[in-house]
């Protein structure tokens, strides 16, 4: 309201005084057409903005390549062949399996995550901070390692319900993190007001708290659903067929025949259906409020006699999501002894994994820089369209991206097939949104006035950008690179399909040994992947706390 009062106190345009001069300057800047509001005689950003915008357009168009490839293949194949490949019993079976998996696993993840988030953030649960960290830690374990642990512990674990069990323990942290963060930011005054009119604790939670968690639940559910559609190794272990497993099997048996491409088209359609459902369920309600809310510590609910039963939920969850993998890996390490630590093979796999992770993370971060810059410095319809292209394609499964690049390189650029360039491009396409989100947040915190000051000292626009914004956004770029590197280290399907001959990453070595039922030899690779992922998972947990002011 103070801002409106200040505006009312200003003299009208054309009047005298500093206010009228300020308004006249703003009008001059608006007429100048400078996207950053700079005076035309001092520093016009038209040239660098045009180059940066062009780079963002090229990256966005290139990221649409897998989607355009799927459409092009469908057109080239012809409707009769497409209909014969899509409308057949096998596709119907895969569709039923995939739908059942999503319909069963996602609601269970929602209930489990909301319950754990409420217990760790809103109740006096003993050891709440420890249980909160243990609820995030399963992200450090690749999904196929979860499946490896369960199938070696329970060899008869197969089918739909096995897929639901392992999927829930592997992916529920994607829902827990946003829900817990949303609970930390809620204004307790709203709940106090509801309680003051006579609503009981359950009705307060259902009518006040739960509606405010809708965005977090929808976003987390979308992430879980997309991971379920894209996952390969988890379901191969438990012998449960999904579109992704069928696509990889078809590719390996017929080397990218039309059937694999049409299965990929159906899988892409499923991804877009999930995106549409998330938009519909999320709605357009307003979740923000004017003001900061009540600046007081939240009163945690006393569990009383329910403490022990409530404590069982995080204990059992931690045992299933963390205890089973670590116990299984430890058991196989003990059973294998020193012989499973083949340091030459492990060292080679570790070195190749780190190289691909760092190179792919660097490429993805550089590719994301133009898009992140214009999203903050030059927002508009074009920026929103380009950014949407990156996020939509980022939701495609890695097997679809790999299949597209395989076909393109084989048909058009055969020398690029199974080269370092192709696999790095695939990584950049798959993990570009991770780098983009981190870079965008960092650039938003770098004042544009520093770029202007650098330009006023005689530096060219690009040099001014490099010496100010890019340097200040370096921490965000590093965080984005770390997220991309984590995804690359645990990536399996695209690496198998695109990596140059002789490549053997940690994930590929683990898969090769486990595929031969040599679980003891696979254990060291699983342990190293988990050990490399745990620090980043801890950083994600700490960052979620900082965002809530804790």
From TrEMBL:
Membrane topology: Multi-pass membrane protein
Database matches in InterPro entries: MetI-like, MetI-like_sf
GO biological process, one term: transmembrane transport
Transmembrane portions of the chain: 51-74, 94-118, 130-151, 157-177, 213-238, 258-281, 310-334, 354-376, 388-410, 416-437, 469-489, 522-542
Subcellular localization: Cell inner membrane; Cell membrane
One matching Pfam family: BPD_transp_1
Residue span, ABC transmembrane type-1 domain: 95-281, 350-540
This protein's UniProt keywords: Cell inner membrane, Cell membrane, Membrane, Transmembrane, Transmembrane helix, Transport
One Gene Ontology cellular component annotation held by this UniProt entry: plasma membrane
Subcellular location, principal: membrane
Top-level taxon of origin: Bacteria
Stated family: Belongs to the binding-protein-dependent transport system permease family.
Protein name: Iron ABC transporter permease
Source species taxonomy: Bacteria, Pseudomonadati, Pseudomonadota, Alphaproteobacteria, Hyphomicrobiales
């Amino acid at each position: 309201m103070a801002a409106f009062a200040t505006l009312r106190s200003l003299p009208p345009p054309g009047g005298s005084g500093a206010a009228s001069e300020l308004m006249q300057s703003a009008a001059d800047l608006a007429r100048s057409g400078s996207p950053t509001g700079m005076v035309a005689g001092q520093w016009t950003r038209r040239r660098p903005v045009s180059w940066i915008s062009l780079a963002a357009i090229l990256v966005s168009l290139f990221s649409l390549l897998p989607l355009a490839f799927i459409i092009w293949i469908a057109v080239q194949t012809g409707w009769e062949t497409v209909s014969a490949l899509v409308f057949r019993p096998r596709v119907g079976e895969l569709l039923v399996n995939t739908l059942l998996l999503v319909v069963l696993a996602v609601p269970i993840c929602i209930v489990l995550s909301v319950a754990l988030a409420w217990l760790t953030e809103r109740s006096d649960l003993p050891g709440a901070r420890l249980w909160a960290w243990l609820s995030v830690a399963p992200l450090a374990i690749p999904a196929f390692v979860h499946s490896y642990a369960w199938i070696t512990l329970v060899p008869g674990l197969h089918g739909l319900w096995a897929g639901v069990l392992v999927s829930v323990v592997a992916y529920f942290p994607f829902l827990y993190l946003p829900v817990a963060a949303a609970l930390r930011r809620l204004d307790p005054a709203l709940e106090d007001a509801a309680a003051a009119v006579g609503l009981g604790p359950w009705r307060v939670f259902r009518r006040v708290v739960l509606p405010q968690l809708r965005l977090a639940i929808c976003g987390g559910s979308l992430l879980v659903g997309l991971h379920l559609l894209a996952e390969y190794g988890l379901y191969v272990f438990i012998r449960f067929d999904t579109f992704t497993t069928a696509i990889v099997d078809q590719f390996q048996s017929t080397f990218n025949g039309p059937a694999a491409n049409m299965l990929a088209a159906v899988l892409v359609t499923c991804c877009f259906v999930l995106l549409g459902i998330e938009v519909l369920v999320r709605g357009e309600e307003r979740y923000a409020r004017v003001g900061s809310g009540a600046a007081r510590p939240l009163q945690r609910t006393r569990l009383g006699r329910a403490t022990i039963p409530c404590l069982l939920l995080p204990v059992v969850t931690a045992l299933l999501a963390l205890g089973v993998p670590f116990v299984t890996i430890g058991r196989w390490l003990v059973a294998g002894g020193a012989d499973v630590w083949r340091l030459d093979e492990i060292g080679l796999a570790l070195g190749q994994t780190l190289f691909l992770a760092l190179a792919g993370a660097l490429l993805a971060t550089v590719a994301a820089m133009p898009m992140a810059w214009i999203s903050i410095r030059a927002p508009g319809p074009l920026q929103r369209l380009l950014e949407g292209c990156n996020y939509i394609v980022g939701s495609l499964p890695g097997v679809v991206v790999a299949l597209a690049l395989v076909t393109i390189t084989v048909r058009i650029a055969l020398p690029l097939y199974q080269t370092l360039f192709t696999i790095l491009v695939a990584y950049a396409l798959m993990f570009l949104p991770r780098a983009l989100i981190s870079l965008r947040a960092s650039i938003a915190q770098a004042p544009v006035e520093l770029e202007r000051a650098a330009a006023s000292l005689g530096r060219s626009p690009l040099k001014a950008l490099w010496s100010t914004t890019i340097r200040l956004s370096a921490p965000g770029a590093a965080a984005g690179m770390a997220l991309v590197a984590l995804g690359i280290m645990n990536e399996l399907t695209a690496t198998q399909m695109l990596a140059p001959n002789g490549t053997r990453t940690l994930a590929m070595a683990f898969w090769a040994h486990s595929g031969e039922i040599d679980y003891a030899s696979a254990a060291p690779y699983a342990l190293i992947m988990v050990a490399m992922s745990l620090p980043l998972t801890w950083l994600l947990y700490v960052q979620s706390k900082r965002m809530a002011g804790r």
